[in-house]
Amino acid sequence: MAAALIWISLLVAVSAPIPITYHAHLQGHPDLPRWLRYTQRSPYQPGFLYGTATPEDRGHQIIEVTAYNRDSFNTTQQMLVLLIGDPEGPLLPYQAEFLVRSHDVEEVLPSIPASRFLTALGGLWEPAELQLVNITSALDRGGRVPLPIEGRKEGVYIKVGSASPFSTCLKMVVSPDSHARCAQGQPPLLSCYDTLAPHFRVDWCNVSLVDKSVPEPADEAPAPGDGILEHDPFFCPPTEATNRDFLTDALVTLLVPLLVALLLTLLLAYVMCCRREGRLKRDLATSDIQMVHHRTIRGNTEELRQMASSREVPRPLSTLPMFNVHTGERLPPQVDSAQVPLILDQH
């Protein structure tokens, strides 16, 4: 049986634009079911719950939706009851999936853009009733977020089903010649007029056709064996493992690094302690005239330092605080000494 797309628009009726965000999850669970997705571009736009249920999802499911008002911080909650049963209507064995690069997922979920896409696609397909099977954002298929340039979209995959076989035009798009042209960066072969352009920019190199009218061959179940491999003359496993003594390996692993470290330590101690010249050897290697000059300079320096420390003379005026030459008066503390000359001269 065919599966139909389910989408629900989440919108609170207000008179003025108010930022509202939504949070939806399956009752009793923190997230949505695996077949249901949620998207909302901004708080000022409606949110969408969309997805295609599978036969394993039949039953009664309750979705809890909470709306948050970003201005007043008010919240409201609503329950969505979904009764998922067997799909009704004709079988849709022929399904085609298109990558539309000119739209985002929330732009094709409303009924008007979706019906416009089906009407435009009818010109490429045999006259028959087309039905949306699934809509998936390109980001969910590994696509990348586009650059923030006007006109750049994320892209959306649209799967359409029909009871009529594929047209010759669609078969030519997925032919090996078209794939070869796409691999070289050229547009694929399209024998008919592109009725989807210019409203929908379809990537014709990413079109896939699935024909479910032909039953797939059932995979043969592997027969259980006895669990014993067949005899291989090139593989001779050992019958038993020999005992090994790892004491020697452990001693070599530990003692060799310790011995090397000890030798390096002894070598460094010999260089630092036993190879020093010493003061006596250095003095003996220096000429007598140079030693006399050195001792004379040191002696004169020490004598000048002793004389400077023992003399009793007043300090130079330049080392005292600011003063007046004639009166000897010092400057008051509140005066900024940085703005006053070093010596005051009064006539």
UniProtKB/TrEMBL annotation:
Record-linked SMART domains: CADG
Single GO cellular component term: sarcoglycan complex
Places the protein is found: Cell membrane, Sarcolemma; Cytoplasm, Cytoskeleton
Highest taxon above the source species: Eukaryota
Keyword Membrane: yes
Transmembrane segments: 250-272
Membrane-topology descriptor: Single-pass membrane protein
Dystroglycan-type cadherin-like domain span: 1-91
Signal sequence residues: 1-17
UniProt keyword terms in alphabetical order: Cell membrane, Cytoplasm, Cytoskeleton, Glycoprotein, Membrane, Signal, Transmembrane, Transmembrane helix
Entry annotated with the keyword Signal: yes
Principal subcellular localisation of the protein: membrane
Molecular function in Gene Ontology: calcium ion binding
Pfam family, one: Sarcoglycan_2_C
Family: Belongs to the sarcoglycan alpha/epsilon family.
Annotated function: Component of the sarcoglycan complex, a subcomplex of the dystrophin-glycoprotein complex which forms a link between the F-actin cytoskeleton and the extracellular matrix.
UniProt-recorded name of the protein: Sarcoglycan alpha
